[in-house]
Design a protein that fits this description.
Layout (H helix, E strand, L loop, with lengths): L1 E8 L5 H10 L5 E6 L2 E5 L5 E5 L3 E3 L4 H6 L1 H5 L5 E9 L5 H16 L1 E7 L2 E2 L2
Antiparallel strand pairs: 1-6, 1-7, 2-3, 3-4, 4-6, 5-6, 7-8
Helix pairs in contact: 1-4
């Protein structure tokens, strides 16, 4: 079972660079390519904690609102890169790592983070 966090960013994301920055600032992670532009992040025990899916460019008006609700749609301008981060359940700190990744990529690229169910963002 997984949970999702979505980062919507203005520029094409450089996922390895963001993760390398997280590691440089103390996160105990191992980054591995998962094929076709996707990445897996493993914790210090070698457990898969987070999967970062291939970023998708969203250009269609109304698509963000349809998928994530009007509040999130109001926070981003199109085109935007949709970066989906899947969090493995049962792995300590996995949600924190996913949120940190999403927050960091938005910090550097501009945009917004969504976590939770459509229509209701998690804190």
């Amino acid at each position: 079972m997984t949970s999702d966090v979505v980062a919507l960013v203005r520029n094409e994301p450089d996922i390895p660079t963001v993760v390398e920055g997280m590691i440089a600032f103390g996160e105990s992670l191992k980054l591995r390519e998962a094929g076709d532009g996707a990445f897996h992040l493993y914790d210090r025990e070698g457990r898969l904690a987070v999967s970062v899916e291939v970023p998708e460019l969203v250009r269609v008006p109304g698509e963000v609102e349809r998928l994530l609700g009007p509040e999130m749609a109001a926070r981003v301008r199109l085109p935007a890169w949709w970066v989906e981060v899947r969090v493995a359940t049962g792995v300590p700190d996995a949600m924190r790592v996913a949120r940190k990744f999403a927050d960091d990529i938005v910090h550097w690229q501009g945009g917004a983070v969504w976590a939770g169910s459509p229509g209701g963002e998690a804190p």
